[in-house]
Amino acid sequence: MAQGGNPQGKKTGKGQGKAARRARQEALARQEAEQAAKERRQQTIIGAVVVALAVILLAVIAFFIAKPLIASKIGKSADSTSTKADPQAYAAVQEVSHKPSKATKEGGFVISKNGYNKPVEGVPTIGLYSDPLCPGCGALNRQIDPMLKAMMNAGQINLEEHFMVGLDSLSTDEYSSRATGAITYVAEHDDDPNQLLDFVSNLFAEGFQPEEGQGYKSVSDQQIKEQALKAGVPQEIADQAFSREYQEWLEALQAYIPTKPELLNVSGSNQIKGKMTTPTITVNGHFFDQNAVPSSSNIKEALLKSIGLSEKQVGKTGELPSIGDKGKPLSVE
């Protein structure tokens, strides 16, 4: 009986041993699996932390790289909190080696009944900032240009014309730069300022000035030249007016002029308030707020009122605006 029971007992012991080994092996496998999972979780956490730190580091680096670029861009467009224009942008204008000798250091052409750079004493100077493609500039020119020329030729005002190139991106062929380049060339080489003003008026004429943006239709140099010839510009000057030789200077001015605090809009929508837009008018260097012109009035009446001259006096030699050459614009309200 005992012998019959021993083999069964030994077999059971072996089975139990195997079961125990399997259990130990399974437990060890579980421990190894749990340890591997734990390590994977740790690696995942470490990897996530590393990635997060890398993103933060890159963001910090990007911020410090972009900060001066952003500040420069804001300064160039319009910083309404600044009381001075961007000195670096101004220096860049002065450093351009090839620029028109008739232009002021601020990039304007001063015109009077006496010609270029010979202002009449004791009368206001009206500054105009415009772009050949700007529709508002065209509308303004068509309204007030005949009056301004009459007053200039009568010695009642001086004009300071600033021509800009900021709307090239709204044409397919850099119209602003080509037209303004031609205007600048004519101003430098033709001694009759009336021919320059007539040329500009021709470019702003309702039947000639192209639309900006999607409605733009290409305008050739030849078409622009025809407007110069129509204004009386000599053929030899008109032929050479498209060399783009003043482009670097014009681009430097485009970066500088919008940083001048005295040219920033003081009213209007949030899109324009605190920014320089075209057309801009100044009177003796002071901003003339076109947005403040009452709806019952018009820009001609308001501008005359701001310098202290009546419409009946326009073009009459000896009848001078009341503000003189140093006064601020009078209220137009």
Automatic annotation (TrEMBL):
Bias type Basic and acidic residues, positions: 23-35
Keyword presence, Transmembrane helix: yes
Disordered: annotated span: 1-35
Domain Thioredoxin-like fold: 125-292
Annotated keywords: Membrane, Transmembrane, Transmembrane helix
Compositionally biased tracts (Low complexity): 1-10
Highest taxon, organism lineage: Bacteria
Gene3D superfamilies recorded: Glutaredoxin
Regions crossing the membrane: 45-66
Keyword check for Transmembrane: yes
Name the UniProt record assigns to this protein: Disulfide bond formation protein DsbA
Organism: Bifidobacterium aemilianum
